[in-house]
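Standup notes
- DV: blocked on the single-chain target, sequence here:
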Amino acid sequence: MLAITKGSLRAILRSPSAVVFSIFFPLIFILVFGFIGSGGGPSYKVVLAPNSDTSNGVIDSLKSFKNVKFVTEKNAAALQEDLSKGRITGVLDIEKANVPGKNFSYLVKFNATTASADKFATFLPLLENIISKIDRSTFQQQQTYAQVAPQITTVREYRTIDFILPGQLGFSLLSSGVFGVAFLFFNLRQQLVLKRFYATPINRSYIVLGEGLSRVIFQLITAVIIIAIGHFFFHFTLVHGWLTFLEIMVLSFIALLVFMGFGFVVSGLANNESTIPPLANIVTLPQFLLAGTFFSIDVFPAWLQPICRILPLTYFNDAMRKIAFEGAHLSDCWLQIGVLILWGIVIYGVAIKVFRWE
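- DV (later): unblocked, structure below
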């Protein structure tokens, strides 16, 4: 088994396509998103406080800007999470001023966190500019329409790379697990190598384990490279340092085993080499697009989100982000890991049925 593992690993390292799709292709996305950050012009997502006054000139003026969007949060916990991760610019609370001796009509409170500091830095002047225009047109500078009282809470900075890298690691694991295993075992079967292995005294399970183990070793090395580049060059968050890294590697190992099961199924179903890409893309393409690889599944329509939430890659990406940034441990991600294991049981049950030696 170890001899098969060594020989197969050597073959993988000599394969340009394996190296490109497992390492360099995901790294391209990481480098692009790492260098450009969030990209695009400033856009602001603002939450109105529950008791905020909405019938005033500040709100009316903000609504006239296309890059200002008022959003509604489901509950206080979701609001705090989005604030801490910089998903929203901040919470706007406008109240009528009842302060004796003050010459302004409204007090504008804006609560934000350091996670959205870059957007807050441009949103605050926008607020002040709006109030200044109202002053010039209404009060001729004799008094001010409103006074801004910003409140900034310091939190751990949530960067674009903290969302992108887990998705790209999942992309790499899924691609290798499906395409790599499917082509590998189909070619071994097509060239009668598996048949020759089958005729030797070696246990049949060792043949499969040897080939599979080489793929696991290669992909875990790939995971180390991706995480190291993300962490040291783009400050990808590892909350608990080495402990977080080790937990990510365990999670990657579990996910890779599950994804390899899809590869075994594809190699068993394929009648010729040209049918492997279509079958593999049926498995991988929906997950690349719908599993939170490049953007959050919350952007999809409500009817599509339940489909997104049954895909195994969704649960890997979710667990990765919880462990890396939020400081969760593997024990806190029992739901995500449980769903991955359930997928593994189902897919390997199918793989055993369709696997062929010749």
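- Follow-up: DSSP finds 13 helices and five strands in the chain.
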